[in-house]
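user: can you give me the structure for this one chain? tokens are fine.
assistant: on it. calling the predictor now.
[tool input]
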Amino acid sequence: MPRMRGKFDLELRAGVVRVVKETGRPVAHVAREVGVNEGALGNWVRQDAAERAGGLTADERAELAGLRKRAAELEMERDVLKRSVVGWADEATR
């Protein structure tokens, strides 16, 4: 019979990852004790390490990407307006 996939809240994930990091015990041992799939716990630990190494969380990276996109759009709008003002100024001085 196939196993049901468990859904774990972020607090539980963070707590289990902290147990692995602070105790130094293998992921497999902690996963068995908590009742979490070993692969899932390994993914959580790797994700936590990547977030800490990069200095940004996944939400912060997504927000940063959105802000960069918006900044590029605003720069394009500014450049279009600059060109149109220059065109109007040329027509006015003729």
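assistant: here you go. The CA atoms of residues 8 and 39 lie 14 Å apart. Residues 59-94 form one domain.
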